Fold:
Amino acid sequence: MRSWTLLGAALAASLVLAFGAVSQEGAPVKIVPRLTGTADPMALDKVPALGRPIVDDVKRMRNYPEQPPVIPHSIDGYQLTLNTNRCMDCHKREFTEGSGAPMISVTHFQDRDGQVLSDVTPRRYFCTACHVQQTDVAPLVLNRFQDAKDIGRKP
Ligand code: HEC
Ligand code: HEC
Structure:
């Protein structure tokens, strides 16, 4: 624990040096970029360019069993609207043999009562609410995520 406290102090000190985390009046000032836009809701902020998505077609390990797998291919221009679902052109059960795409899993056919439907349930229709691409950028906020297999008593 002690080493974390020291590390924390060192980190805080370096942040103060880097960003001047305490203002003239002594009030704390934000030290991470805001994720929610400008403080003035009507002001126009310069939006940074999006990172280039990773499209190498390599399946990524899931960080925990229930994680929606990330999308390893391009989805540029894929329409996902009330009338068209481009994702299902490949991921629908009937089309997977031709496309080579993994079928949406059985949970995607279940309505909220657990009833299994013959096609994707409305709850899972908008794929990108859960499945996202990855970009090769540094995280905005530090995190110390640990895989569950590395936590707890070792045999
Ligand atoms: C042209 C066919 C095609 C379309 C359209 C398509 N996919 Fe895929 N998808 C694939 C294939 C093939 C794979 C297997 C990995 C690869 O080759 O990229 C895949 C892999 C995936 C995976 C990874 C699955 C895993 O187990 O790791 C996800 C998630 C995914 N696609 C989601 C989507 C979403 C969301 C859309 C719509 C925005 C979409 N796909 C549109 C063909 C497609
Ligand atoms: C509400 C969140 C959610 C939505 C919406 C959603 N998925 Fe998923 N998806 C998941 C989760 C969670 C998993 C992993 C566990 C599971 O299979 O339920 C998954 C798994 C998958 C897999 C891997 C299947 C396998 O057997 O490896 C594919 C492919 C996939 N989804 C495609 C899609 C497509 C295409 C859509 C849109 C039609 C979609 N998903 C919509 C959450 C979602």
The longest helix spans residues 2-19. The chain has two domains: 1-33, 51-138.
